[in-house]
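Run log // design_07
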């Protein structure tokens, strides 16, 4: 285990992550009101909160064979906008991402956010598009929006870890991966990412 970094349990570790995440945003996005991002809780669009809680509880205890199906169910639940028009914008944004049209994806997700500012998946999609376009600051801003609504969002947390690792925040990236491990122990590639960063940080400490 890396000195000073330990899996403290989902709530405790996430508290640490969100604390330094707020500090990062203050540096990376000077024009952003961080308190508005991290403190103003936005209601999920048409998500069934009780069902989502049950799915996340099952995911944290699932064996490898069950995890992928539960992950898909969570993704479907999080994607419930409650509007056919918003669903179409989400689909168009995802389709643009799939073909590498990051500018188009950003435009579609921005339109979705403009019309449904309480829908977290709009921000999650745009965060992905910004990341793929190399725009880490705006991506971090949108990740903050997602995690304000749903701190267990392992996709947004995974993106956060990627950005931190790319910006020389390997120790913090590893802390985020530990959070994901509490939420989704069998997330594809997670164990390898943790092992690689642990090895890297151990080598750095020598």
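design_07 sequence
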């Amino acid at each position: 285990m890396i000195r000073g970094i330990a899996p403290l349990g989902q709530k405790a570790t996430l508290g640490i992550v969100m604390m330094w995440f707020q500090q990062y945003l203050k540096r990376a996005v000077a024009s952003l009101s961080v308190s508005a991002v991290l403190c103003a809780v936005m209601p999920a669009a048409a998500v069934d909160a009780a069902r989502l809680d049950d799915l996340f509880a099952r995911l944290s205890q699932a064996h490898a064979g069950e995890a992928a199906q539960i992950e898909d169910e969570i993704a479907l639940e999080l994607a419930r906008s409650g509007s056919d028009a918003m669903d179409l914008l989400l689909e168009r944004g995802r389709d643009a991402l799939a073909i590498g049209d990051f500018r188009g994806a950003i435009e579609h997700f921005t339109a979705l956010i403009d019309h449904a500012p309480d829908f977290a998946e709009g921000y999650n999609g745009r965060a992905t598009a910004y990341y793929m376009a190399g725009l880490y600051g705006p991506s971090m801003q949108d990740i903050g929006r997602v995690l304000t609504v749903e701190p267990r969002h392992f996709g947004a947390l995974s993106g956060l870890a990627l950005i931190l690792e790319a910006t020389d925040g390997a120790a913090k990236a590893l802390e985020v991966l530990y959070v994901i491990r509490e939420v989704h122990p069998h997330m594809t590639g997670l164990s390898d990412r943790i092992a690689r960063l642990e090895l890297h940080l151990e080598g750095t400490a020598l």
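Confidence is low (pLDDT under 50) at residues 1-12, 24-44.
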